[in-house]
UniProtKB/TrEMBL annotation:
InterPro entries in the record: PC_trans
Enzyme Commission identifier(s): 2.7.7.41
GO molecular function: nucleotidyltransferase activity
Spans traversing the lipid bilayer: 5-26, 32-49, 56-76, 106-122, 128-149, 169-189, 195-215
Organism, scientific name: Hoeflea poritis
Catalytic reactions on record: a 1,2-diacyl-sn-glycero-3-phosphate + CTP + H(+) = a CDP-1,2-diacyl-sn-glycerol + diphosphate
EC class of the enzyme, as a word: transferase
UniProt family annotation: Belongs to the CDS family.
Localization per Swiss-Prot or TrEMBL: Cell membrane
Identification of the protein by name: Phosphatidate cytidylyltransferase
Source lineage: Bacteria, Pseudomonadati, Pseudomonadota, Alphaproteobacteria, Hyphomicrobiales
Keywords: Cell membrane, Lipid biosynthesis, Lipid metabolism, Membrane, Nucleotidyltransferase, Phospholipid biosynthesis, Phospholipid metabolism, Transferase, Transmembrane, Transmembrane helix
Membrane-topology descriptor: Multi-pass membrane protein
Pathway participation: Lipid metabolism; Phospholipid metabolism; CDP-diacylglycerol biosynthesis; CDP-diacylglycerol from sn-glycerol 3-phosphate: step 3/3
Length: 279
């Protein structure tokens, strides 16, 4: 086994265990994790976009937006955090448009801000928050793993060659099946939710995760970047590891918020976890 692979495995296991530990305890520690994760995603995104030149003003708006959104996450004001992230993105988009420039910085604020809020809000439930986040991890991690090995084993037609040349339809199907099985098992071990609902939710989150993977691959190709950063030894940047989780987490947040009976009460936990995997 090569030294590079050993480093990759060691850093992956260490990071995974640390995240699971923080997820178990929840509370302010998990909100802080979501905030740090959001800030790192923002920095990596803007650093990549910097290759097309970002003004100091856009950087300042982005940083202030993420800081304000982070404070909302820590205070448990998820809805306000989403509104601030959207407002910052709109301001960035306006400034860039007036100068005839693209909207990638604005997209980055939505990408980082919305995912940070969603991640924190999913865990913000004493009863079901842990189960929902573990369910999310199980679906996404199994999808990624089965997609990788299924694609290598079966090969076949490419899924989206312009976005990600190595991904295949066989990998997509393998990932979907693996994600659903892992999600159903995780849900039944930790909750009393119905198997049919757990399977349907796993399908939606697996699909969202695979779309997120393709989205980030396409984003990096747009800027000629292989890795989003180098903060995780053997893996690259934070965005390289959480691309699937970002889309899946926000999809879970939206689904939970749309279900009937959900309460969006600032600072009290918004009931999204209960809606997703409650009895």
């Amino acid at each position: 086994m090569s030294r590079e692979l050993l480093v990759r495995i060691a850093s992956g296991v260490t990071l995974g265990l640390a995240v699971l530990a923080v997820t178990w305890f929840g509370g302010l520690g998990f909100k802080l994790l979501a905030t740090v994760f959001m800030a790192l995603v923002f920095f990596e995104w803007f650093r990549i976009v910097q290759t097309k030149s970002l003004s100091t003003a856009v950087w300042a708006i982005g940083a202030c937006t993420i800081a304000a959104t982070g404070l909302c996450i820590l205070a448990g004001w998820g809805s306000l955090g989403l509104a601030l992230a959207a407002a910052g993105a709109a301001l960035c988009l306006l400034m860039r448009s007036l100068n005839g420039l693209d909207g990638w910085p604005a997209a980055g604020l939505i990408y980082a801000g919305f995912s940070g809020v969603a991640f924190a809000e999913l865990r913000d439930s004493h009863t079901y928050g842990f189960a929902v986040v573990i369910f999310l991890f199980a679906v996404v991690w199994a999808t990624d793993t089965f997609a990788y090995f299924g694609g290598r084993r079966f090969g076949g037609p490419k899924l989206a060659p312009r976005m990600s040349p190595k991904k295949t339809w066989s990998g997509f199907a393998s990932g979907l099946v693996g994600g659903v099985v892992a999600g159903v098992v995780a849900a039944k071990i930790m909750t009393d939710t119905r198997i049919v609902w757990a399977a349907l939710l796993a399908v939606l989150l697996s699909l969202a995760g695979q779309v997120g993977d393709l989205f980030e691959s396409n984003f990096k190709r747009q800027f000629g970047v292989k890795d989003s950063g180098a903060i995780i030894p053997g893996h690259g940047g934070v965005m390289d590891r959480v691309d699937s989780v970002i889309f899946a987490a926000f999809a879970a947040y939206v689904i939970g918020a749309m279900l009937p009976g959900n309460e969006m009460s600032p600072g009290e936990g918004n009931g999204i976890a209960l809606q997703l995997l409650g009895p």
